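Late entry, evening session. Most of the bench is empty. Finally got around to the prediction I had been postponing all week. Sequence below, unchanged from the version circulated by S.P.
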Amino acid sequence: MAGVTLRDIARKANVSVNTVSRALNDKPEVSQQTKERILTIARELGYTRNLVARGLATQQSHVIGVVVSDNVNPYFAEVIRGISFVAQAKQWTIFLVNTYLSRSTERAAIETLAQYRVGGLIVFPLDWDQIEEYRRYGLPMVVAGARVPEDKRPAPFDVVAPDDRNGAREAVEHLIRTGRRRIYYCGPHEDSLSGAPRWQSYVEVMEEAGLKPALLPVSDVSAFEGYRHGMAWPDLEKADAVFAFNDLIAFGLARALTERGVRIPDDIALIGYDDVEFARYTSPALTTVRIPKETLGQQAATLLFQRIEGDFRKPSVEKILPTQLIIRETA
C-alpha cells in the first residue's frame, strides 16, 4: 500500500497516533507487546518512514553528505569505505554526490544537501575560497584530501589530509638515488589543491639536486589523460623518469610508453601516487606513494560525528596522515 500514514496504523492497532509514533521510534513509554503489535501492522501495511519530513521536523536526518570529485576513481572508493564503516556503526546513512571537477556542481550539491537537512558534510573541495561559502549553511563540516594552505590558516573547519609534501619528496628523492636525472612531473600543479603540494615538493627536490624541473600538465587526472600524454609526448627521449600525480595517470602513461617501445623501468622509471588496489597487480607492478585512504575516511567521519554530537567548543583541527613510498617494479 502506498502512502500509509501513522493514522492508518493507529486505526488498525486501535491505539493513538502518538503511541504509534513512540513505538516506531522505539520509545520506552510503550510496552514491548504493544510495540511489537504496531511494528507487525506497520510491516503488513507496507509503511515506510518519510525521512525528509522527519528531518524537517527534528532538524536531524541521520544522513551525512559526502561530496567527491569522481567516485569512479578507486582512491575515492577506498576513502568512502572508511567513511561508511564509521557511519554504519552510528546507524547513519551516506548521501554521496560527485562533482566531476565542476565548481558549480559542487556548489549546487552543497546547497541541495543543506536543503535535505543532512546532519553534516565531508567535502573533498575543488577550491579553498569556495569552501568558505558553505559555512553559511551552519552545518558541521570536515574538509578532506588536501592540507590548508598557509594563507588560509587557521581554517574554521576540521581538515583531514595526507602529507603530500613529504610523499612527493620521498618519491622524487628515490628516483634521484637510483640514478635518474631527467625526471618529469605529470599532473595538475598550481591550480590543484592536491597537485600544488606534490608539484612544489617535486620542484624543491629537483632544484636541491641541481636538476631542472619539467612539467607534463594534464586537464584531468584519469588513466586516459595519462595515456593521451604518453602517446603524444614529443620529448620522450629526453626523460628517464616520470613522477605522476596519481596512479591512474601512471597506469595510462605506462600503457602508452609500452606501446611506443619504452622499457619500464629500464628506459623510463615511473612512480604513481595513492597506491590504489590495482597498483600491485599491473605488470610491471607500480611503484607508488601510499595514502592511508580508508583511515582518511574513518578519521574524517569520526571528526564529523564529534561535531554533530555537540562537540562545538573545541577549536578546529587539522589531521595530517603519513604517506609511505611503496617500491615495486616500475622504479
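Two things to note before I forget:
The longest strand covers residues 63-68.
The mean pLDDT is 89.
Will write this up properly tomorrow.
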